[in-house]
Amino acid sequence: MMEEKIISRDDLLKICKDVIEKGHTLLSPGIAEYNVVKDVSQIKLDASALPTKTSYKSYVFPKAEPVLYYKRSKSDVQLIDVNVDGKNIIILGAKPCDTNSLNIMKHLFNWDYSDEFFNLREKHFITIGLMCSHYDEYCFCTSIGLSPVSEKGSDIFLIPLDKNNFALRIVTEKGKEFIEPYSEFLNTVDETLSRQVTENVKQPEVAFDCKEVHEWLGSNFENPKWEGIGNICLSCAQCAFVCPVCHCFDIVDEDYSYTEGRRMKNWDGCQFGNFTLHASGHNPRDIQSKRYRQRVNHKFRYYVDKFGEIFCTGCGRCSRGCPVSIDIKEIVSNCKD
Amino acid sequence: MKDLREHTRELLEKGEIAAVIGYRQVSEMRTKPVIVTDPADAEHLVFNEYCLNNLAVYLTKARIKALCRTKDKTLKLAITAKPCDVHSIVALIQENQIHRKDIHIISFNCHGVVKDFGCEFNGDNLASKCITCETHKPLYFDKIFGEEKETPKASDQALARIQELESMTHKERFEFFKGEFDRCIKCYACRAVCPLCYCQRCITDKAIPRWIESSSHQRGNFSWNIVRAFHLSARCTGCGECERACPADIPLTLLNRRMAIEAKRSFSYVSGRSLETPTLVGSFNEKDSDELFM
Lengths: 337, 294
Fold this sequence. Notes:
The structure holds two protein chains of two kinds. By secondary structure, chain A is α/β, with parallel strands linked by helices. Chain A is built from twelve helices and eleven strands. Chain A has a seven-stranded mixed sheet with strand order 1-9-8-7-6-2-3. A four-stranded antiparallel sheet of chain A has the order 5-4-11-10, with no helix packed on it. Chain B has two domains: 2-145, no CATH class; 157-267, no CATH class. Chain B has helices spanning 2-14, 62-68, 83-94, 128-131, 157-166, 170-181, 189-193, 218-231, 241-245, 252-267, and strands at 17-27, 30-36, 45-46, 76-81, 103-108, 143-145. In chain B, helix 5 (157-166) crosses helix 10 and helix 8 (218-231) packs parallel to helix 10. Chains A and B meet through helix 8, helix 9, strand 10 and strand 11 of A and strand 2, helix 7 and helix 9 of B.
């Protein structure tokens, strides 16, 4: 599929303007979150920016969404379906550590049950990735097999060649379909230019070996280390909610009145004490250390065993934002010490 | 730093304390909480401008309290606390969550902390609470380190913002908070880091009946954030941890500070300042103002 072209920044913004005018949703990274672009002057396309505080998963897997409405009468319960909005969402300038997130989540949402809400939104999601030229102490994309120039998950991938020009790589069929109407803005390019940029990009050092971590986790379920981490962790779900791949949810019914209500699918986090609380009062993960152990095992062991993929993108959001500075990269890198 | 390490090592060696809740440097511009039980680990303890966390939150945790119980006696727990964190400790004692005699407070004459991890401290980029801080010397302590020095004063932007909000119409103010709460993802980091959010079971975790919807839609987010502000009114000591922890950058201080202003105006009460004073919500005086009844 790979095809490479050159596009100027101005032309790229022209495409964005057209996308907005056509009524599609255009997302672009701000500082705290990915914002819906109303005016193209908002678009920064800054390869040196750190990942936003929150990921864009809420656009495919909303933090709270109704899955059905219900009406009750004396003799009957009537269920009313929800129509999922199949609107095109185009994300421009997604970090390589974010672009692969939907591919990872897809496994879960199509495992024992096919989640039509996720799938429909994902189908209409067009990802335009942007190479990343900056990392900090929490980044570890290279340790989980990605890199600042990874095209994985992108439909189109951008590489800044200079201040005003980008190499534009068409990665998937979906990306080709999207860009075709704008072919007037694309020019042929010498592919060695972008290769020079990607080959010289600064990459975080590989901090750990996923296979070794997987192995260590398998034989260290009762390691006293977990207790040490559990003593510090305060049981919020910041890590899970800012994570681009964490996908746990809770189903709750919200009554408007005695006769009407709706069933909601809300984000849930495995670090909450009541996440595994049974109706009987028993809680298999009753203390924080067991909950943190679950988080690491799910990311680097259970998901790998089940779906063959590491449940992490190495973006470092969970560590960067952790109120008590728990650093997952440090924990898995030093697990054997 | 040497004094702090020697002092805590000695206490641990003598068996006077069970553990030290302290800070450990993890990178040049970041520290993290650490629980030290082994005297040899006292060498990791630090105190500097990057000690942002309010460690008082750990004092009420069952797993930390459990460290203190030995066969024949209950040992003390040592905590390194900035003067503003001591306010939280005082509030916890006032509310009978901990006993003064069980806590060994190691405090510092504080010159302020940096506004966020990863920002290089240059003397001016202080956390906003430090700019208006009036307690550079702790009100209560068992051991104190450091020299007294004032923090540079700057304009109180949070107060200016509160006044600005008060001058708005009800509708405008609602719109403002709607915009802010829209970003709430209900991760409850605000609750988790708050030393005074020690409820065994938070009202938002109660499902039957469900007082606060768990959905982070507009109504759910408003009910959570407003109930939290009410529950902390005349209790919040203004440490600002909730705002620092919030991944959605919601200015939670505006709510808590506004309630603190009200407590001071109506009842001359400031939370966490005196061990001799009963809590505002836990005391009643016939002369109390009733103008806040709704």
